[in-house]
Automatic annotation (TrEMBL):
Functional description taken from the UniProt entry: Has nucleoside phosphatase activity towards nucleoside triphosphates and nucleoside diphosphates.
All copies of domain DUF402, residue ranges: 18-156
Catalytic activity from the UniProt record: a ribonucleoside 5'-triphosphate + H2O = a ribonucleoside 5'-diphosphate + phosphate + H(+); a ribonucleoside 5'-diphosphate + H2O = a ribonucleoside 5'-phosphate + phosphate + H(+)
Residues binding Mg(2+) 1: N87, D103, D107
Protein name per UniProt: Nucleoside triphosphate/diphosphate phosphatase
Catalytic center residues: R23 (proton donor)
Species, as recorded: Ureibacillus aquaedulcis
Family statement drawn from the similarity comment of this UniProt entry: Belongs to the Ntdp family.
Positions bound to Mg(2+) 2: D105, D107, D120, E123
Length: 182
């Protein structure tokens, strides 16, 4: 697997278990790329849904993906604090200048006070039947929901107090470098 290079712009592609594209984020700046971790940032980026509808993200976001965990975390920087949207998903791969993963419906929304809500359990059960999620995937996802909740409670990874500050500063630095190069 190739590794994304800091400062370059890539896409993020979300698929469903049946192989169909679910959603595409057009532009995300690479802040860190290793064999196991991708951290990126975007703001006001165009998002295209599977049905062709498009929309722009509203606020700056820091995106965290891991090649060994079955979730990814979007940290949305809003005026009243950081909100986290956590997707239960396959580990990511970097292919053809895009981060790619399978979205498995279940989501956890985390609020600035670190309270959280598990979302889309009905959608997960419906898609599990329709797309035939194997039992092993079901077990992996449920184990990773517990792991993610543990991270939230322990303020680990993207939930750590200094994570947002460090990666927001890196994003602002890279934006400044890019604007000077133009």
């Amino acid at each position: 697997m190739t590794i994304p290079i800091e400062g370059e712009t890539i896409q993020i592609h979300s698929y469903k278990h049946n192989g169909r594209i679910h959603r595409v984020w057009q532009e995300t700046m690479v802040l860190k790329g290793t064999r196991n971790i991708f951290i990126g940032a975007n703001e006001r980026t165009l998002v295209t849904e599977s049905d062709g509808r498009t929309w722009l993200t509203r606020e700056p976001s820091i995106c965290y993906f891991h090649a060994e965990h079955w979730f990814n975390i979007i940290c949305m920087l809003r005026e009243d604090g950081v909100y986290y949207y956590c997707n239960m998903s396959s580990p990511y791969v970097f292919d053809n200048n895009a981060i790619k993963y399978i979205d498995y419906d279940l989501d956890i929304k985390v609020f600035p006070d670190m309270s959280y809500t598990l979302l889309d359990e009905d959608e997960y059960e419906q898609h599990k039947k329709e797309m035939g999620y194997p039992e092993v995937i079901d077990k992996i996802l449920k184990r990773n929901v517990n792991k993610l909740v543990s991270w939230i409670k322990q303020k680990r990874g993207p939930f750590a107090p200094d994570f947002i500050e460090v990666w927001t500063n890196r994003y602002l630095f890279n934006k400044e470098v890019q604007s000077k190069e133009k």
